[in-house]
């Protein structure tokens, strides 16, 4: 029977993180149209107005393509950990050269601003971001002020008269763009931190379980093995001098070994056993972590809210165990074989039987040959005369249903006359347990 593993959930979380990274990267590339389109229009208008000579038009187009390449490289490096100093210097030189085209048309003013928007995606302090905004705004302000005197010679103010206004304007725009992009970068960092925290919690849980298991084994076997070693040593010394006592010591060794084996088997059975209430809580947590909303309805929902001892407290232990396996297998199939957004677990009792249903949406068509999980469930339920069915439910849903008959009152506790050996019912039940 297949079971949900930490590796499956980790792979799913990694795919989701990679998908979000691609979406974030493409959103920044889409934003690049905000300076590519105005710059191309600026080339056309500057050429038509006679402010840009024909040989400089292809040079400007090449420079624009180089700036786009630098922008994409800075975005990728920024999301990946940070751009190198070489990339920053090279892209800054290209942006500064492109800012000179402001002398030909005002639309070229967007190039340096978008260069800054890509630079601030790399990790840096607020002081450094402020310095970059002021420096970029000052360069653009100076070039724009000079360009105003060249492009609009009939103005009332000289270029140095409008320099403070243009510098303040470009610095403010750079600060706004830097704030927006840093906020989006922070959202990307939060997704990465969430992914790392989930992986760390999974590893911590595995480590704690290993420590718990090692402590239990030490407590179970430490005393028994020490007793076996001491008595074996004593029996070896007494073998020649007192064979009868040596035999008695070896009988004690045999008894201690059997007790240790019994305790180990009981411990392993406890680790392997699954409980319905615990499994329901664990499945809800796992599905919620995978982005699937899981709700429990019907008898389980009422009992969970009304009683502190769990939704399946009134069911026999063997019924709770087999239904817990159904819940685990159903959750595994939801995670591995669907793109579900919602899963509903319903536990109901009718006609002397208990029925557990798991419904989910997002079923993928043609998801490969069926596995052996449902066959294993059918075999488990057959021991209790139960049955399991699975199949499509609606347009894109899936239904897993397990029905287990409940034992009658005569099956729950033997009467006084049925106790073996004439013993009291309490004694017979205790020996059976």
Short recap of the structure:
With 433 residues, this protein is an alpha+beta fold. The chain contains 14 helices and 5 strands. Strands 1-2-3-5-4 form a 5-stranded mixed β-sheet.
Describe the model.
The protein has 14 helices and five strands. The chain is an alpha+beta fold. A five-stranded mixed beta sheet has the order 1-2-3-5-4. Strand 2 (342-350) and strand 3 form a beta hairpin. The chain is elongated. The protein starts with 5 loop residues before the first helix and ends with a helix. Mean pLDDT is 78; it is low at 300-311 and 410-433.
Uncertain segments: 300-311, 410-433
Share of helix, binned: 55-70%
Domain tally = 3
Which structural class is indicated by helix and strand composition? alpha+beta
Distance between the termini: 28 Å
Assign an overall shape.
Answer: elongated
Kindly estimate the percentage of residues that lie in beta strands according to DSSP.
5-15%
The largest sheet is:
5 strands, mixed
The total of beta strands comes to 5
What's the average pLDDT?
78
